[in-house]
Amino acid sequence: MKAIRFHEFGGPEVLKYEDVPDPQPRKDQILVRVKACAMNHLDLWVRKGLPGVKLPHINGSDIAGDIVEVGEYITDLSKGQRVLLAPMSYCGHCQACMEGKHSLCRQFTVLGNGVDGGNCELIAVARDKVFPIPNELTYDEAASVPLVFLTAWHMLVGRANLRAGEIVLILGGGSGVGSAAIQIAKMLGARVIATAGAEAKLDQSRELGADYTINHYKEKISDEVRKITAKAGVDVVFEHVGKATWDESVKSLKPGGRLVTCGATTGPEATFDIRVLFAKQLSFLGSYMGTMGELHEVLKHVFSGKLKPVVDKTFPLSEARAAHQRLEAGQQFGKIVLNP
Fold it and tell me: In sequence order, which ranges of 7-160 are alpha helices (DSSP H)?
């Protein structure tokens, strides 16, 4: 089969479109022909070099496609079904997994990070990672769902416990996880302030449901939040940008507010005044992907049409370098998708 692999870490130039052996599924696995694989910032970080990534490596966390082979131990799926895949790997037998807290498993990793992913034509996966998709959902749309909608759901529902009537500040509304978070927050009955760095992205954020928008390149986030909230601040900050926005995110919180973060796109270093933390009784919450139960929950809302994946642009798999360049430049709104 064809795949995008890299044999060394570096820029987009290390990506190679090449032949690799077809996977040989076990009797308890399903072989899927990849029709679409959506990109995430994780693809960029893995390509540049992360601990534990073995070379050569295949990126790609978000996969949709067709079942081409079903292991003999599996009886409830059949060849030809359209499916998407859960973007995670875990042991399945530790205490965390048994309690349904899969992202706390010591062996937990994201597909395309600690294990090879879906930037290829065929992939073999366990039965529990496979979800049939409705005909109304295209392959590109289906591939644009799993990682970002699960991450946003876990952040807002599982960790921050966002409630109707609260106001949430969502950083980077034009990102995949940001566009998912806007929709989830609105579905939950919250008011949304979204930030972006371009007027077109601000317009698109409002189309998704954002009540207010802030251009984080032209306006100071915390000042605008004070204006919007009559100096009160927000109940929840949805953080994934990191160093560049951390101070503004903390300043935007009301007393008793919660900041939940899943990433550090602009850098992992962040400082804050501990006195502010305890005096305002703030909560800083870490969030990493989510659980299989949460994925089942959020997929119900996607499949019913309440939540809609946002596809930015598609590229042939052979043009993965150009797709990486677009994502790295921050030109996208929603998800960039590779088509094998």
Answer: 41-48, 95-98, 139-143, 146-153
In terms of C-beta density within 10 A (0-12 exposed, 13-18 middle, 19 or more buried), how is residue 63 classed? buried
- DSSP 8-state assignment for residue 115: B
Q: Looking at the whole model, is its pTM more than 0.90?
A: yes
Within the chain, what is the greatest distance between any pair of CA atoms? 62
How far is Cα 18 from Cα 8, in angstroms, rounded to an integer?
14
According to CATH, the superfamily of the domain at 2-144+309-325+335-339 is Medium-chain alcohol dehydrogenases, catalytic domain (3.90.180.10)
SS3 186: helix
| Residue 124, phi then psi, degrees to nearest 5 | -105, 130
Residue spans of the domains in the chain: they are 2-144+309-325+335-339, 149-286
Burial letters 299-329, b for 16+ CB under 10 A, else e? bebbbeeebbbbbbbbbebebbbebbebbee
pLDDT along the chain (340 residues), means of 10: 98 98 96 98 96 96 98 96 96 94 93 96 97 97 98 98 98 95 98 96 96 96 98 98 95 98 91 94 97 97 97 98 96 96
CATH superfamily of 149-286: Medium-chain alcohol dehydrogenases, catalytic domain (3.90.180.10)
